[in-house]
# Entry
Amino acid sequence: MGIVFTLVALVGLLAALGHVGYVAMLNNAAKKKGAAGSEIAAYSKSRFPVAGGAAGVSLLGLLLTSGGTTASIIGVILALGGGFVGYRGLQQERAKYPTGG
# Structure
């Protein structure tokens, strides 16, 4: 059961890290635009705490899955919660500032 908990927590962590990566990419692109991207840069800076917090909670959850059964259950709940927040944040960012041609 431990490997299943770990894999589920890892998926949650990856979802949260996807949000961090997208916000970082958005911030980098806005900085390259200079004054024209200042609004987007300010917005992405305001989103870093949410993305980082979700990734931190997911990482804590992943670390807890290496404990006993109770700790593993709590860890999976934390990791999935952080992953859900990260995934929803990523979807909101992509809808507001889509990338690509």
